[in-house]
Amino acid sequence: MAFNIVADEHRGFAKSQRRIMTRAENDLWRKLRGGRFRHYKFRRQVPLGDYVGDFVCLSARLIVELDGAPHQTQDAQARDAARDRWLISQGFRVMRFQNDDVLGNIHLVLAAIEGEIATALAPPLPTLR
Known about the structure:
Blueprint: H1 8-19, H2 23-32, E1 43-48, E2 51-57, E3 62-67, H3 74-89, E4 93-98, H4 99-121
Parallel strand pairs: 3-4
Antiparallel strand pairs: 1-2, 2-3
Helix pairs in contact: 2-4
């Protein structure tokens, strides 16, 4: 399934997730929304194929995921790994942060996101022959 083909159930789930953000999601969203973060446009709770990305910058093809306690089980980590593999296969970069990272030092999280965007948007190096 291509990432731009989304089932109605995933759209509904994404919409409901926008209404019930965690404190960490809310704090990060305040920094990213409306082009506030270095003028990059982020969207939140974006359906992508069978999945929903927490924060997505389409121009950099970057997905930022915040993980809380539900992501700590082995089953959840296996699902997250499979999900990340599929998103990467669709050309996205995936960054994961713990909620505590955002709540404890959001500036480090933002610096890491900025570095990943710079890497994603950097022109390719010329090849030498």
